[in-house]
Amino acid sequence: MLEIAPSKQAAAWLGSFASALEAGDAAAASNLFVDDCYWRDLLTFTWNITTMEGREAIADMLAAALATTKPTAWRLSGEATSDDGTIEAWFSFETAVASGEGIMRLRDGRCRTLFTAMTDLKGFEERKGADRPLGVRHKADPQRETWSEARARETRELGAEEQPYCLVIGGGQGGIMLGARLRQLGVPTIVIEKNARPGDSWRNRYRTLVLHDPVWYDHLPYIPFPENWPVFTPKDKMGDWLEMYTRVMELNYWVATKCLSASYDEAEKLWTVVVDRVGRRITLKPKHIVFATGAYGPPRRIDLPGADQFKGELLHSSQYASGEKFRGKKVAVIGAASSGHDVCVDLWESGAKVTMIQRSPTTVVKSDTLMEVGFEIFSEDALARGITTEKADMIVASTPFALVPKGQRALYEVIKARDAAFYDRLRAAGFAIDFGDDETGLLMKAYRTGSGYYIDVGASSLIIDGEIGVRSGVAIKSLTPSGILFEDGSELAADAIIACTGYQSMNETVAGIVSREVADKVGPCWGLGSGVKGDPGPWQGELRNMWKPTAQKALWFHGGNLALSRFYSKYVALQIKARMEGVATPVYGAPSRRC
Fold it and tell me: Which residue spans within 244-279 are E strands per DSSP?
């Protein structure tokens, strides 16, 4: 009896919630939540990616959305669980136009967090499983068109006789995954990529680059990595996988293509996009454009007084490919986050004498430690417990961003204690460590600023052993003909300087392709408005502008690491598909606010 009590409590709450919604009683529904409550919705009620914080916000959303949403068929999925007084239950439901799923967490009979996410558009579901395409027409026909003939015709006509409904600008991992999602939903899409081959965005990086996240976290939709795939994927292997994926998923993928300009006609609700495809200018007329140009925008180049005097080579990390030509030379690497560490290792392995210039403290976490305590639900053990990658994605997404810091703070207390000796050795080597303004560690830095962290896959031991030098705690005054002059009067001789100083926001790419006005209108991407340095308020509750409607109609942003791209590509695709099919998409909530 005790084992089924959580499910009975969850069923009772869900029944009361469903009744209140059916009656159109937003106040009654909101009263089923605790005072300090959160409801995160991915499209089902809001046609947005947004979080309502507090009963009043929930009531306001329901008052605005219930009449069109018309939610029904609420059902528990499996048995509820109980942990330290919190009951967790998964459920499914339907709206007027979609099916959905979600996770609730109850305390003392009321809801603390609710998560709802769209799974399919009714009548426009992906053709899979029992509904998969037949693949052949069993009838003799002299006009028969084979699969290869149909693909050749589509490739020939799309972008010429037929215009794409959606143009995805950027053919790296994010653009490829979104292209696959749109393909499966039947949205005519072209993905454009400036490089010569799919996967070159990985191949063209420095030779030692390997993914820092484990394989269970990095699967692409539809085709997971095989079971013998390495835990940490080398860059060239990832490049080959992406190239294979574009072929197998039948993407309309244009290589050697650069987007030159784009403008939106508000009256026609149409973009005019000029691209250069292998030296030929082509004008496309998509209804929607998606910027999938990576997690960030153009390189951020810092002002270095005296740069014109420096006689050596000065590069941004985006221009760095190999340390081979720096063999035997003195190289200074400005920056102590992920790229800075990786470039230092590559240079050291190539025989350079390397010094890292650390401008601010860095959050460092040992890879082994993070694997054991930070990726618990993305692991082989998790799979053995029935937690698939898809289920793990939902678990992560179900936690409102406002509550993530508390869990991360507790996690990093464990990490700091576990690896205390490691951190002491790093500090003794002159390397400055921090865990964020509020001790929340790597993940919150990634969300808030996208900078200032490193998962240690080898560089830290080189720093501890003195193989990679460190200059920390003193600012650069200027470059000199032979190196770097610091504010304390000391100098560092350098034959080359690699600036691993990060990238600007994705909206800066929009400025170069669309206009400065539109870039400023949509505002920056990423960040939560947490108020820490680099992430100014006001509080957003969600990542700015990512995967949801922006202030510019028919302009979207998609990106992030492999896991974020995998998960959120589904919701970008559903939003675009709904608009293509004329499904009403009343968006609740304003676009991300400018800061």
Answer: 253-254, 257-265, 270-277
